[in-house]
């Protein structure tokens, strides 16, 4: 890519990464922004909220919108998540379709590609082949060819096909260079230095949810929601020793799940608390007292009233 000249107009706009669960969208967002703003996990479908990471460059600003994975909906929550995804696609300037290098293109990818084909023609679509560190060059070449073919099969004209590894940073800058010219000429949309406009409480809730998902049974992740009820600075603290009190509820669907989340003698919940507290402190830059409670919200995934309460 050519270096920015002083006469080049400033560009700013929105990009979003789509792809099936676990495709590496959140990790890529983090790699581009350079800090942990999106929530990653080795479990599918952990990204519930649209999280924006913002890439600041002298000549451009890229606002990255991270969406949940698009999938065949089985519950009301699933349908709502898909609506969120489609609404996001329609609003962004460029879409990056993430396909892991180490996995054969499957029905899930074809489903998304077919949806992308329905998106307005003038929204550029970049195919991003992720996790290139997991495969050798021969397998990578084959995947690039398969992605090209996928585009032709469904009728999407990829603006680019870019292999990247978010883990070792390979080609991440190149991807950024390729995204910038695809957003419109515009002054910066966000103040310099902002990394995300996600409300702090939502990010804190996501960090707690991420910690709660670690090491629990496969079926449980979809049944956990976290709501931060209150974040208040502790009174009577000396100025140089502030403490932020955070009260949060971990919602599960059934009483039988309580034991899994809490663990023997509360050991798991304690661990979830201390692990997420570290991340929260790093995010907010202040010591935190975290008060975590587990509550049963029966069948919350199927109940519109509960879903609204839990922020969906
Ligand atoms: N080796 C390797 N692993 C990666 C890379 N990018 C992501 N991963 C791993 O792949 C898994 C899924 O990554 P995420 O970024 O959470 O995927 P996602 O697409 O955001 O997933 P959802 O939120 O479920 O939609 C995690 O375990 C990551 O550590 C990469 O470049 N190389």
UniProtKB/TrEMBL annotation:
Keywords: Cell membrane, Cytoplasm, GTP-binding, Membrane, Nucleotide-binding, Ribosome biogenesis, RNA-binding, rRNA-binding. It is found in: Cytoplasm; Cell membrane. It comes from Streptomyces tardus. Residues 11-185 form the Era-type G domain. Transmembrane segments: none annotated. This is GTPase Era. Residues 130-133 are annotated as: G4. It holds the Pfam family KH_2. An essential GTPase that binds both GDP and GTP, with rapid nucleotide exchange. Plays a role in 16S rRNA processing and 30S ribosomal subunit biogenesis and possibly also in cell cycle regulation and energy metabolism. Monomer. GO terms for cellular component: cytosol; plasma membrane. Residues 164-166 are annotated as: G5. PANTHER family: GTPASE ERA, GTPASE ERA, MITOCHONDRIAL. GTP binds at residues 19-26, 66-70, 130-133. Residues 45-49 are annotated as: G2. The gene is era. It comes from the Bacteria. Residues 19-26 are annotated as: G1.
């Amino acid at each position: 890519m050519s270096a920015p000249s002083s006469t080049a107009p400033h560009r700013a706009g929105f990009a979003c990464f789509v792809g099936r669960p676990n495709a590496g969208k959140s990790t890529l967002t983090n790699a581009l922004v350079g800090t942990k703003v999106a929530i990653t996990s080795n479990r599918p479908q952990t990204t519930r909220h649209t999280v924006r990471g913002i890439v600041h460059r002298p000549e451009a600003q890229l606002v990255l919108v991270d969406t949940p994975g698009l999938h065949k909906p089985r519950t009301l929550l699933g349908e709502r998540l898909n609506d969120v995804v489609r609404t996001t696609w329609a609003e962004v300037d460029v879409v990056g379709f993430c396909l892991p290098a180490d996995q054969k293109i499957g029905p899930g990818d074809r489903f998304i590609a077919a949806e992308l084909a329905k998106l307005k023609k003038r929204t550029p679509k970049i195919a991003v082949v992720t996790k290139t560190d997991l495969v050798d060059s021969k397998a990578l070449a084959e995947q690039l060819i398969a992605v090209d073919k996928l585009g032709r099969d469904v009728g999407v004209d990829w603006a680019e096909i870019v292999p990247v590894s978010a883990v070792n940073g390979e080609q991440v800058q190149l991807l950024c260079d390729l995204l910038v010219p695809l957003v419109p000429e515009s002054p910066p949309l966000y103040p310099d230095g902002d990394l995300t406009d996600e409300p702090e409480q939502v990010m804190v809730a996501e960090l707690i949810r991420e910690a709660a998902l670690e090491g629990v049974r496969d079926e449980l992740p979809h049944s956990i929601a976290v709501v931060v009820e209150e974040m208040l600075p502790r009174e009577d603290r000396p100025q140089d020793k502030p403490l932020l009190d955070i009260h949060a509820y971990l919602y599960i669907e059934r009483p039988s799940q309580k034991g899994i989340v809490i663990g023997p003698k509360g050991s798991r919940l304690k661990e979830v608390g201390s692990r997420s507290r570290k991340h929260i402190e790093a995010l907010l830059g202040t010591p935190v007292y975290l008060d975590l409670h587990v509550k049963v919200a029966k069948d919350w995934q199927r109940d519109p009233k509960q879903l609204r309460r839990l922020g969906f």
